[in-house]
Amino acid sequence: MAGYPFRYQNFSIDQIDSYQGKSGQNAKAFIDAVLDPSVIGFGTIDDIDQVAGKRGDRQSSAGQQEVTAVFMQAFAGAGTVVRGNCTFGMFSNYPENVDDALRQRAGARFLVDGPQSREDYIDILSLLLGKNHAIPVGEHELFAAQEIKKAVAASFEGHSKPHEAGLLTVWDRVSAEIGKLDTLAKMGAYLKAIQQADERFTGRAIKNITDAVKVRAMDFELPDEWMEAPDLFLFKPYDEKLAMIRGLMTPISVEMVVQEINRYADSEFRYADKSDEVAIAGMVRDFGRTEEAKRRYLEGKG
């Protein structure tokens, strides 16, 4: 309605080049196209674990390492300027394989899971079957469980306590020592205890948590008429728009901050545990092969 163009671009594995420096140039061109201040941009990076290499990982190509360096600089580097006109999304089935410093630049984390509940399975069956049949639905309200507002509220409420076993241990110990986390000092003590359990929980983690809290405070629907008639909001002076937005904001609460701490820390503990488990399972397989090779070698000699 306001006449602003939308731009969508995806960065994928086919933009990794064998020529030195070319992969980095491709990544920079992608970033610049989405950052263009004359558009509203959305940039996606599919299978980020394959596209961007972990630093120090010998299996990563030079091109993948270049891409990691470009993304780290673009998302939170010395020259990064946040204009607010675009969003980047990084997607992966194996987020534990993404370089820690690059993954920690993702301000908001969302677990996009498959069907979990009975209602989910009924809904996905109905959705994928389509409408070209006469099978009755039965006793079920289709897609009621998929309502975004309800699902998000339930998700946030679920993070009032941690989910991951390692973080839950920290939570129980801190709660026993200082009681309910109802002041900044107590929440700071909890953050320090998390850092002692996982040294990767750094200042960048705190920034991502506070950014997520601010996003939740701004999580409201703009009135439809503001979008239908740009003069009602979009074309007003900055100070007037700010005052209108402030009237719709949700106050930041203790519960909100605690939930975001747990949500972020849960994801980091989950990644660390999965990464360790994969490494341990690989070593166990290697030891088993070594033992079997020794046995066959000795048998052959005998």
Name its key features.
3 strands; 3 domains; Rossmann fold; 302 residues; 55% helix; 6% strand; 3-stranded parallel sheet; 12 helices; single chain; mainly alpha
Walk me through the structure.
The protein has 302 residues and is mostly helical. The protein folds into 3 domains: 106 residues, 3-Layer(aba) Sandwich (Rossmann fold), CATH 3.40.50.300; 32 residues, no CATH class; 156 residues, no CATH class. Helix content is 55%, strand content 6%. It is built from 12 helices and 3 strands. Helix 1 links the parallel strand 1 and strand 2. The termini are far apart.
Name the structural class.
mainly alpha
Overall 3D shape:
globular
Q: What's the overall average pLDDT, rounded?
A: 88
- Per DSSP, what share of the residues sits in E-state strands of 2 or more residues? 5-15%
Helix content: 40-55%
Tell me the distance between the termini: 84 Å
* Cα Rg: 24 Å
Q: Going across the major beta sheet, what is the strand order? A: 1-2-3
Total domain modules: 3
